[in-house]
Automatic annotation (TrEMBL):
Gene3D superfamilies: FAD/NAD(P)-binding domain (3.50.50.60). This is Phytoene desaturase family protein.
Length: 471
């Protein structure tokens, strides 16, 4: 006799999503979290100075509002409030100009000069059909619900980002495109790197790139509150070492990576499945920096001063070179960087008149090098006077990131390379990527399709698989 219908291990966005789906069906569900607080990558801490709230991992949430599942939930009722920056993302250049992404497709295109029509032609059909496309894009490999629209998207998405950049003429547009594609944390000449750029741009036009008021932990807290309101149970401070320590359940869903899956339940798997998990590939790591400032970043260009997210690295060629160099295990003094400025729009993040800055750059897997000076110099290049405004700082190197979240092997926040060979086969080649070889044991982490990002769709699809298999 099972104590629970399902036990979910891990409270990142996918673990919470899986638990909610199952609880919505009236099952008895237990959610187990190793740390004392919930959230996985959705946590907010005073990392630099008292009163400065810094998002530890996820900071800006385009997919949380654009993906089908989370937006279907009544999270506002449980305290979640999103704030939309006027400029979703800006991409400055050293000459003091910049490109910018706005919610408005037309306003974005109008700022791209000679590329205005090309941008509208590329993005218009995807944005127009986003509500239909998103369900197929953020899903495991299957026959799409809207095959014609999905095939048109797929023809563009499968191309290397460097190749599809040939659609544009202006260096500003190519730079904006490269900044989007580099979220994929791999060389931009890899096949299918256009997919991440298309998804991020389209989701911005469809739903924006919001921040959660008070910090990313607000999203985790709202999800958890809704789960408990449905009758779900939560147990924190329990770092599961082996599946045998869990209470009896018809299904166990693990929001963990392949290595942790092997440690927890490997003895129950078939030799073939263990072999596949051991071949799973991880990618580059990240170096994460947080700054406390006595004023906003003094950007030269106007658009970044109103942007929630800023991409640094310059031209398409510069960003492509930086990502290629780091992929090969080396470093660069001109890294691609993501910078988030939540406190410009959310006055709960810092004391009055002060500001927080969230930033990361890519590094070789497992890096322990201190890149704070490099990152400060990179921001200073586009915002002279930035360094003078720093009153506190904090850093996680790649191994610190792994220590914070064991799913981030070597600092890989995507929990595995999302290249063409591992997009749909993560973590193993199976009819359902969420099933393990052991009956009743499932994996629901970012190491399953559709991969990294705060969207909950890995957990959603894993839970749907459980319902079809066992209930």
């Amino acid at each position: 006799m099972s104590n629970y219908d399902a036990v979910v291990v891990g409270s990142g966005p996918n673990g919470l999503a899986a638990a909610i789906v199952l609880q919505q069906k009236g099952l008895k569900v237990l959610l187990v979290e190793g740390k004392d607080t919930l959230g996985g990558g959705m946590r907010t801490l005073e990392l630099t100075l008292p009163g400065f709230k810094h998002d530890v991992c996820s900071a800006v949430h385009p997919l949380a509002v654009a993906a089908p599942f989370f937006k279907s939930l009544p999270l506002k009722k449980y305290g979640l409030e999103y704030i939309q920056p006027e400029v979703l993302a800006a991409h400055p250049f050293e000459d003091g100009t910049s490109a910018a992404l706005y919610t408005s497709l037309e306003k974005t295109a109008s700022g791209l000069g000679a590329d205005s029509n090309a941008y509208l032609d590329l993005m218009g059909p995807i944005v127009e059909d986003w509500e239909n496309l998103s369900a197929d894009i953020l899903a495991p490999l299957r026959f799409p619900k809207k095959p014609m629209g999905f095939s048109r998207f797929g023809w563009k998405a499968i191309k290397p980002a460097t190749a599809l950049a040939g659609t544009f003429k202006e260096h500003k547009t190519k730079g904006l495109w490269a900044g989007m594609a580099a979220h994929g944390i791999q060389p931009l000449d890899n096949w299918a790197t256009s997919a991440i750029a298309l998804v991020l741009l389209a989701s911005g036009h469809a739903r924006g790139w919001p921040v959660a008021k008070g910090g990313s932990n607000a999203l985790a807290e709202a999800l958890a509150a809704y789960f408990k309101a449905l009758g779900g149970e939560i147990h924190t401070g329990w770092m599961v070492k082996t599946i045998d320590e869990l209470p009896a359940a018809t299904a166990v869903l693990l929001d963990v990576g392949p290595r942790q899956l092997m440690d927890i339940a490997g003895k129950r798997f078939s030799p073939l499945y263990r072999w596949q998990l051991n071949r799973y590939r991880y990618g580059m790591g990240v170096f994460k920096a947080d700054f406390a400032l006595d004023g906003p970043i003094p950007w030269q260009a106007p658009e970044p001063t109103q942007a929630g997210t800023v991409h640094l690295g310059g031209s398409l060629e510069s960003i492509a070179h930086a990502e290629s160099v780091i992929w090969k295990g080396r470093y660069t003094d001109n890294p691609y960087m993501l910078v988030a400025q939540q406190s410009l729009f959310d006055d709960t993040r810092a004391p009055e008149g002060m500001h927080t800055v969230w930033a990361y750059c890519h590094v070789p897997a497992g890096s322990t090098r201190d890149l704070i000076p490099v990152m400060e110099n990179q921001i200073e290049k586009y915002a002279p006077g930035f360094k003078k405004r720093i009153v506190g700082k904090h850093a996680f190197n790649a191994l610190d990131m792994e220590a914070y979240n064991p799913n981030y092997i070597g600092g890989d926040i995507n929990a595995g390379v999302q290249d063409l060979t591992q997009i749909f086969t993560r973590p193993a080649l199976r009819l359902s990527p969420y099933r393990t070889s052991a009956k009743g044991i499932y994996i629901c982490s970012s190491s399953t399709p559709p991969g990294g990002g705060v969207h909950g769709m890995c957990g959603y699809h894993a839970a749907q698989r459980v319902l079809k298999d066992l209930f």
